[in-house]
Write a structure and sequence with these properties.
Number of domains: 1
Order of helices and strands: HHH
Shape: globular
Distance between the termini: 13 Å
Radius of gyration: 12 Å
Helix content: 40-55%
Low-confidence stretches: none
Strand content: under 5%
């Protein structure tokens, strides 16, 4: 179970924003297991149609 609260989520966002070495993040698995997320801003990302479809399917499954 994901126990990230608002404070932890902001810390994670800040860390990811500053990260210059991350090469892979399985966001689909994270979203499928998350039971508390109420908002996700994916603006200014180049997800493409496959990425958008995968995220939408994860949202539907949850």
């Amino acid at each position: 179970m994901n126990t990230l609260g608002s404070k932890e989520g902001k810390a994670l966002a800040d860390t990811l924003r500053k990260n210059t070495t991350l090469t892979f993040l399985n966001l689909i698995d994270v979203l499928c297991k998350n039971i508390t997320l109420t908002s996700l801003n994916l603006s200014e990302n180049n997800l493409g149609s496959e990425g958008g479809t995968a995220l939408n399917n994860a949202r539907i499954q949850h």
